[in-house]
Amino acid sequence: MSYLGIVALSVFGANALLSYGFAPCPASRLRGLVGLAAFVALFLANALAASLLWALRALVLRPLGLDYISLIIFVMIAIPLVRLFFRAIAAKSGFLHRLSTAADDILVSSIVFGIALISTRSGYSILEALVASVSSAIGYWMAAVLLDALRERLELSDVPEAFRGAPAMLISAGLMAMALMGFDAVFIKNLAG
Amino acid sequence: MNEQRYSYVPNPVLSGLLGVFPLVAAANSLMNGFVLGIGVALSSLTLALLMPFLQSFVPDRLRTPTSLTLSAALALLIGAGVEAFSPAAARSLGVYIPLLAVNCLSLQTLRHYHPATDGEGRVFAGQYGTGISSLLKEALGYIAAAILIGAFRELLGSGTLNFAGPDAQLFSFSLTDEPPARLFAAPAGGFIVLGCLAALYRIATLKRKRRGA
Fold this sequence. Notes:
The complex is a heterodimer of chains A (193) and B (213).
Chain A: H1 3-13, H2 36-61, H3 70-89, H4 95-107, H5 110-121, H6 126-156, H7 166-180, H8 185-192
Helix pairs in contact in A: 1-6, 1-8, 2-3, 2-4, 2-5, 2-6, 3-4, 5-6, 6-7
Chain B: H1 2-5, H2 21-25, H3 30-57, H4 60-85, H5 87-93, H6 104-112, H7 125-158, E1 160-164, E2 169-174, H8 187-212
Antiparallel strand pairs in B: 1-2
Helix pairs in contact in B: 3-4, 3-6, 3-7, 4-5, 7-8
C-alpha cells in the first residue's frame, strides 16, 4: 500500500478510537485528549514506541526466535525509554511540563500499546510503521475533538435522563463509527493505491 | 461497616466505562465476550493478589515498571490459555489479548489498589480482604457485562449464538437464517449496544435508588 493509502487507512478506515476502541482509561488523570500538549505527547509517544517495538522485533527478537515475548520486552525496554525521553524534555512549568504529564498517562494506555502492536504486526517497513502510528495518532485526535464537540452540544440538548452523559456519547460514537465504515481497506487501496 | 460499604459495587463497564475498548471492538460474539471477560477478571485479580507482595520487596521507583511487566506476562499466559481453549477465539481476538496487559480494570488495580501495610510492609489482613472482595465483585460485573454485550451483538449481528469448547461445540442456537443487522458485529454496533445497555443500567440504578429513598 502507498504511504497515502496507509495515512488514509490509519486516519479513517482503521481509526484508533472508532474502529479499535482505543482510549485512555477513565480512571487516569487525563480528561480527554483534545489539548495541544496531549496531542503532541500522543504523537511523539506513538512514533517513538512503534519505531522502538519495530526495531526490537526485527533486529533482536525475530533473529533469536523470541517474538512471542515481544510484549514483555516492549514493556521492559521501549516504554521506559520513551518515558525517559519525556522526562529529559520535561520542564517545571509551561508547555513541556504539560507534555510530560500527559505522556505519563498516555504511555500506559491501550492507545500507545495497541497502535504500536498493530503497526508492527501489519507487515510494514519501519518507515511505513512510523507513518501508520503517527497517522493513527492524528485519527485518534480527530475523533476525540469531534466527540468533544458532540459532548458539548449534547450537554445543551434535552436528552432523556437515562441517556444523559456516557450512554448518549457512546451512541454518538457508534453513529460516527458507522460513517467511517465506508472507508475500508479495499476502497482506500483502490483510491490511493 | 466496611461490608456495608462494599455490599453494592457498581458495574465497572456499564456505570464507570472501565475497560470498554475490547468490548466495543472485539466482543462481537458470546465466545469472544466470555474469553475477554474471564481474561480481564483473571488478570486484575491475579495482579491484586500479587501487588501487596510486590510492594514489600520492590523499591518505589521500580514498582510501576515491575507491575506492568507482571501484567504483560499475565497477558501472555492468558493468551496461551485462550489459544489452547479455543484457537478460533484467539485468532478472532488478535491484538486484544496482549492488550489485556493495559486493560483499565488491571490499570485501576495497579494505580489505586494499595492495601494498607504496616511499617515493615506487612499487609493488614482485614483491609486486604475487603479490597479483594470489592475487586471480585467488579470482576464478576465485568464478566457479566462482557458476556451480555457479546451475546447481544452475536444475536443481532449474525442471528446465532454459539459457544465452543476446546474439542466440541457446547452450545448453539439459531435465531434467524439471515443476519438481522450485520452492523452490530462491527465496532459501530458495539458502541450502540454498549450505550443502550449503559442507559438500561442507569434506569435500573435510578429505580433502585428511588425505592431505597
